[in-house]
Amino acid sequence: MMQRRDDDWIMKQIHLLAEGLGYLLHSSNPDNDYEIVFPQQDEQMLPHQEELARLIQLNRYGEAAKRLVNLQPTMPEKDFMKLSVWFYSTLNGKSETELEDGHYSKDAIVAGLRKLSDMKDE
Description:
Blueprint: H1 9-27, H2 49-57, H3 61-71, H4 77-92, H5 96-101, H6 106-121
Helix pairs in contact: 1-6, 2-3, 3-4, 4-6
């Protein structure tokens, strides 16, 4: 039986963390040019998005997460935040079983979003 997002505690937490991250990005400096963008198929890919998408397609989620972390120092903060939100949003669409098969979990998604939030607070 499939649960609705609001009925699943972890899914709700992920959703709330993503909303909170968006608020933090915007409210920490109302004049900043940060915004959370969920890229559409027709839009230009973010830097390294294609590489991460390929790892996700191969169900290598843990490896993709490590690669994302390693990309942080090589990218502008704005691009890294957009890529990270895309990444965690994409993984959040996977089932627990799919994530486990790819050496990842919903808890790891929550932890990743929390790290993003903490990075923004620094």
